[in-house]
Amino acid sequence: MLRDMIDVTNDKNFTQGTIFNCAYSASYPNDEALGLIITARCDIANKDKVRFYNYIPAIPFDVWKNKELQPLVKKRVYINLIKNYLLLLSSAGFSKGNVETYGFEKIHEKIISQKKLNPKQLSQFNDLKSKIDCIESNADYGDLHNFFSSDIKRILDDIIENKNSDYFFIDKITGYGSVIISLREIYELDIGTANKIPNGIELDNGGIYSGLNLNIENKFCSIVGQMKSPFIELLIQRFANNFIKIGVSNPHNELSTLIMEGKK
To answer: Does some domain include residue 124?
Structure first.
């Protein structure tokens, strides 16, 4: 069922597609991130050509879900939640301003005591309010999953199927489970540090290691896998696509009509 994306038998070769642990990510300063090398193989082979390698952060799903999933869910559902909530509030004879002035609980009590909504509407109203509270409170993954499991599934399906340009999904890396790669972040790894990773680096030995995160519990940096072909080529293509877009002015919205009518 899982795709065979990562070779874990080669922990010595440092090249494009190499994945190492203890990578630094500004978005996860206190969590262990992985780093995936994207520097071209020819540049790595020509050791005099570059002074550092580039990597992009790869975040274990169990870490990623508690930070980046909530904004994606909010973007997907929040506007419609608010819209439907305000419609029911209006049907009950109240406004957003009433709630802001008197508080939700007081307005809610009046809606119930005065039977402003029928039982079905009241159930919908309560459900909408609970979901809005979940979004606005930056709830943890458990609560998000409880309220928005179908939306989360669609979000993950889009990432897995390469329909979200911000992310790339790795089904499994041994020891880390499913991993989500950020395609809009790029970091530098000093070559001196990179050359030591295949043999392992003890991070608590007092050394300075540019590109590695010394603030995490794991203190041993090493190679954890190599992304196989054609997945590494697909990842590089999708990463590059984010940075080669060229903006041009939009055509006139009536251009097709003018062409059809022979006026152009």
So the answer is: yes
- Binning pLDDT at 50, 70 and 90, where does residue 259 land? confident
Write the DSSP symbol of residue 217: S
Kindly state the average pLDDT of the residues 124-144. Answer: 94
- What's the rounded mean pLDDT across residues 67-72? 96
Residue in 138, 171, 169 with CA at minimum distance from that of residue 72: 138
The helix-helix angle for 119-136 and 141-160 (nearest 10°) equals 80
DSSP letters for 59-93: EEHHHHTTTTHHHHHHHHHHHHHHHHHHHHHHHTT
Which structural domain, as residue segments, surrounds residue 49? 6-61+166-241
CATH assignment of the domain containing 41: 2.30.30.110
Residues 113 and 87 grouped into a single domain: yes
Confidence of residue 263 (pLDDT cuts 50, 70, 90): low
Determine contact, residues 37/55, Cβ cutoff 8 Å. yes
Token pair belonging to 209:
């290691």
